[in-house]
Design brief:
The protein is mainly α. 54% of the residues lie in helices and 0% in strands. The protein has a domain at 36-85. The longest helix is centred in the N-terminal third of the chain and has 24 residues, at 2-25. The protein starts with a helix and ends in an 11-residue tail after the last helix. Residues 1-31 form the signal peptide. Pfam families: GASA. Belongs to the GASA family. Keywords: Signal.
């Protein structure tokens, strides 16, 4: 009986170690990676201050990992709430 329980324990521990190795070595976020440059170029295409818009959009995109559809001013909270809700120190919208 002791041999069977030891075998089960070793099998269980091996399985746990294997699952931990797979979890820690699997790449995260690569499938959902966004091209911030292209997304922000379109987002800022109608902006009156395109360089400032691109800089702010790029920062927001890097932090949030998403950019709402449409051009500057179109805040789609459902698609990218992080982007839509980010504010400056003055409480103004940071992301164009």
């Amino acid at each position: 009986m002791a041999k069977a329980s030891t075998s089960r324990l070793l099998f269980s521990l091996s399985l746990v170690v294997l699952l931990l190795l797979v979890e820690t070595t699997a790449p995260h976020g690569q499938a959902d990676a966004i091209d911030c440059g292209a997304s922000c170029s379109y987002r800022c295409s109608n902006s009156g201050r395109p360089k400032m818009c691109l800089r702010a959009c790029g920062t927001c995109c890097q932090r949030c990992g998403c950019v709402p559809p449409g051009t500057s001013g179109n805040e789609d909270v459902v698609v990218c709430p992080c982007y839509a809700n980010m504010t400056t120190h003055d409480g103004k919208h940071k992301c164009p």
